[in-house]
Amino acid sequence: xxxxxxxxxxxxxxxxxxxxxxxxxxxxxxxxxxxxxxxxxxxxxxxxxxxxxxxxxxxxxxxxxxxxxxxxxxxxxxxxxxxxxxxxxxxxxxxxxxxxxxxxxxxxxxxxxxxxxxxxxxxxxxxxxxxxxxxx
Length: 136
Known about the structure:
By secondary structure, the chain is an alpha/beta fold. It has a single domain, classed as Rossmann fold (3-Layer(aba) Sandwich). The chain has six helices and five strands, in the order βαβααβαβαβα. It has a five-stranded parallel β-sheet with strand order 2-1-3-4-5, with helices on both faces.
């Protein structure tokens, strides 16, 4: 069975800046991991045009699906170019469930919670392939 990697990263406030997911996805596939990316199913929801569209999104359903995907994965890759509550919660949940975690963190002086819940911290996406080569 192919190993699975959950791709976590900020969405809200970065709806038009999700290209990092494609890069991480390609690295995962090249290194033999099946990517689980919530953006693939949720991007349609983020096309809301009314100012209060976010308030109408069923948060419990969103979170339930993400947590179920994390439970199915072998590893969680958290991309943090900036602080993201959702990404930090997913990182915490993955560690709570005993998953391996890689954090690609561009935050200067990351919070101790991020560091504690990350098995490996990288500065750039380009380093990810090398981690997989070491059979993390």
